[in-house]
Amino acid sequence: MLSAADNELLTRTGPGTPMGDLIRRFWIPALLASEVAEPGGAPVRVSLLGEKLVAFRSPDGSVGLLEARCPHRHASLFWGRNEEGGIRCVYHGWKFASDGQCLEMPAEPEDSSYRERVRAVAYPTHEAAGIIWAYLGPAELKPEFPDFEFARLPEGHFHASKRLQRCNYFQNVEGELDSAHVQFLHRTFGGYEAHGRVSLKSMDETENPVYTIEESGAGLMCVAERPYPQGGAYWRVTPFLMPTFTMVPSMVEAHNTFTAAIPIDDVSSWGFTITWRPERPFDEADWERDLGGLTLHVKVDPETFIPERNRENNFLIDREAQHTTNFTGIMGTRNQDLPVQEDQDGAICDRTTEHLGTTDRAIVAARRLMLRSAKSLQKGTEPPQAQNSAAYNMRSFSGPGTADQGWRELWETAQPKSTQPVS
Amino acid sequence: MLSAADNELLTRTGPGTPMGDLIRRFWIPALLASEVAEPGGAPVRVSLLGEKLVAFRSPDGSVGLLEARCPHRHASLFWGRNEEGGIRCVYHGWKFASDGQCLEMPAEPEDSSYRERVRAVAYPTHEAAGIIWAYLGPAELKPEFPDFEFARLPEGHFHASKRLQRCNYFQNVEGELDSAHVQFLHRTFGGYEAHGRVSLKSMDETENPVYTIEESGAGLMCVAERPYPQGGAYWRVTPFLMPTFTMVPSMVEAHNTFTAAIPIDDVSSWGFTITWRPERPFDEADWERDLGGLTLHVKVDPETFIPERNRENNFLIDREAQHTTNFTGIMGTRNQDLPVQEDQDGAICDRTTEHLGTTDRAIVAARRLMLRSAKSLQKGTEPPQAQNSAAYNMRSFSGPGTADQGWRELWETAQPKSTQPVS
Amino acid sequence: MLSAADNELLTRTGPGTPMGDLIRRFWIPALLASEVAEPGGAPVRVSLLGEKLVAFRSPDGSVGLLEARCPHRHASLFWGRNEEGGIRCVYHGWKFASDGQCLEMPAEPEDSSYRERVRAVAYPTHEAAGIIWAYLGPAELKPEFPDFEFARLPEGHFHASKRLQRCNYFQNVEGELDSAHVQFLHRTFGGYEAHGRVSLKSMDETENPVYTIEESGAGLMCVAERPYPQGGAYWRVTPFLMPTFTMVPSMVEAHNTFTAAIPIDDVSSWGFTITWRPERPFDEADWERDLGGLTLHVKVDPETFIPERNRENNFLIDREAQHTTNFTGIMGTRNQDLPVQEDQDGAICDRTTEHLGTTDRAIVAARRLMLRSAKSLQKGTEPPQAQNSAAYNMRSFSGPGTADQGWRELWETAQPKSTQPVS
Lengths: 423, 423, 423
Fold this sequence. Notes:
The structure is a homotrimer. Chain A is an alpha+beta fold.
């Protein structure tokens, strides 16, 4: 339960808000690289943290991310001409480099120096793992790009997707960190083959987890321990990485999963998912599974990124199947997350009236970390996680351990072997 | 004409508003029984008085009506599992009885007593005449169910329908009480057969009514008297029953009509209509008429309850027919009411700028009763009508009387003969 | 750049706003005459300056324009009966003349004088050049209709159209006055035949204009001078006529163009365009061009007046054509204006953050004139332009002049020869 003030603080991320300032200290996913695949191709509209932007891939292959409104009279640069060296507004031909510098003002006198004094708002981008990442914070504080394992992998070893999620970003974050819901929301009444979904058969579905939460260099380690039928314990280690990322344990062997909840505005967000495997490229079965829409990747409309199962069609809930097949009557893991996250008393959950339980410890810890960090930043203390690139070089873990093994020992055996790019 | 403050008072019915408090003292129609026909079937979303609820028929046949948000972290119970004994939230499996008591918290430790201290907001329901009625007020003040005649009838003697009306509920109330508009809005230029609508041929269409308004145990008796061509007077007695009900005189013999205007929120409402006949079951002609969509029942979309004639299609107005067939160019009595009620200067009528006439006396009286009752309730005086179940056992009346007959004498002859259920 | 206060002042035009008051001092286009073509035909909804109105052509051919809400209980007169002498509300039969006087209250007692004291809000109309014009200001200040040349022409010599523009009206005004954008936004990479658009081949596209702005009796003369390849100068004279009109130089010989940007509300507007030619009626080629949708007239949906190219379909931009055919990848002059005007940082441009250039002088002058006039009016000084009918009898001009010719000399040769109606 949060105070009304803290709930506002947690959920508002527009320009000038404390939480918006905090998130802007980090590199965040902005769009899929495939949206701006073609050098010199069409610009695309991108909304992030309440800001309207335009992304474009210049003929030289680099990606620009500028405020949509032209500094002149605010015509949208979405209509702009993607030219060598920059984007040109179609209204009066002003041209801007990817760093925002105005390069040309053809309607001004030739000897004018006006263009030297005009800059578009521009944000640095970084392309990794099929995603264009962006840094929306103060230029002088721009951190090194986080040392994600997936960012060092060649094509074929990862798959990135995004979906529109019609709720505040933090409801998505909470869902990712919520290990306890797995055995309810995602429960099937039979095996994988029958129900088209990853089975939880390796985990005792009837036991509740005991939580341990520890801080890490990047955020939190959320550890859920369950008694294991064969003896010892079954562990799920879900790292929460500042500002809004998680690494979610996968039921599929050696298939790692990263998720990011990125505010579009305060009532909608982009949900990014990356799956990756350093050991070997995805094979046909991997692609079939990841593109099948029943994992944490979902099938979406290619234009709007609205999931095929969405609130307009009640996520295609099958009430008969809810009694015979799985707990929700909805097929697919992420497809099951969406209905509960998108309507927690509307698009922004009112956390002043909730009743938290013992299984909400990871969520409570993540809220506290975010609130504390946002408040500290307002007082001048920068979030140390933003500058700790190495701390992002990790994976989640899930699996059984013997009675004398702690989670850290098990987790460490599953971590990336090297920080060197895989070739 | 109302002050701006009184218009606000009259039209705002959300939680905590004075008019919302008043309406919550009464049993009101919440949804059609047919929407939750199947025991153990799918829950349905219900919005009433600005509250988002979920209704479901338990496997034992009883109907639950709970706040949609789960008390835990507010996931919607609409996605819930309708199980023996209660509804279970799909997010973490919390289960609630129809009275709101939390029955299970499977993710909490087995010895936890937390569930005993958590209740969902729940409202009592009562099924009668094809409608699930609800009481949204303080539990300790829950009144006896009103002794409506239709509530004592077996299947086959009544027909209930609902429609979405895109305006504040009180514009619907005013339309029901407004006897004077009948001879204009509902006028046809010929008989019933030609124009597919109940004819007003038994009433002199060219004469204006003289109004008498008296208080009753349930609200008001709105009496309209017109000179009758054959001598004496033609009477229409329209009871207004607190909080938002009317009994509308019907042109069809022995076919009684009840209507209720129920706020969804302040700019939309449910219009419920019940027709009933104790004397004998509906026959084929009755059903044909009532389901034909040209009476106070209208044809609606079965999912959304939006009338087939609606503002998006300008209620299918036929401007040619407006000159040749009837006053509006729109077929059907309720279909004619909708356009004028749904745009009285927008969804909420600005009553500070209206110009009332002598034919608006019933409306003025109903406003006064509602405002006075809401204000009294705020000072601690409960509305006596809510506790006067017997006073709701009545019908409307319309018909001619001789010169020496008063309306009450005529009306009393038409009242229910007994309060015993018809078997 | 404007202060936030001045931007509010400039863009808000609802009842009681200073700019709304100013615009209401002038005759403005309200709807196309073709929308109310038939005497006694269906009333149509008209929204102007935040007011909801209903227009109708009485059986006698005159056009009424009344506030949509009936003075009684505010049912919309859109549903009304268009009868001899006035419009009758279908709710209770109140009837109003075009001047707003209540003519009948059939539900009131016969001897009642109530109707003499009730008036609907009504605005005078004037039909000219295929448009119903209206005056929404104080009756006692109603000016003579402006002496537009097109208003004196017979059928066949003019063409009027309107389109819905989803932005504040002043973004449209600014676009009309903005001579500099012509050589960018409207540039083609070849001739007229190839690209289906009026070519700018008679103007040196690579040279920027030098501006001269002078006041006129109706508003401003905005003069753009460019060096002419053949010697001397190429002139474009664009009159700005109070309150929101322009006369735009045409590339087509003797084809004059008038445009008006009329607020619907603060985030949408009607764009009216009139083309006219006194010398001879439009011939087949004229109609083909004007109805082809590639000039300042666009093709629109006949019901909603939404342009066929609109924001939902990204104005059918062709990104390939943007590199090969013309500057925008969008066909048609007005079609090119719409995307930049409709998203200048949203529906209302934030003029506090723009960066104006030397080519924005006409825009700056028009803003100043409008702001100054609105402020003066609040202090009691009426705008003199409203009463200067003769000053509106003008055309724009574009064409080359020799080195010793000034713009005024050239412009005057192109002005209407007479104020007499052409027969």
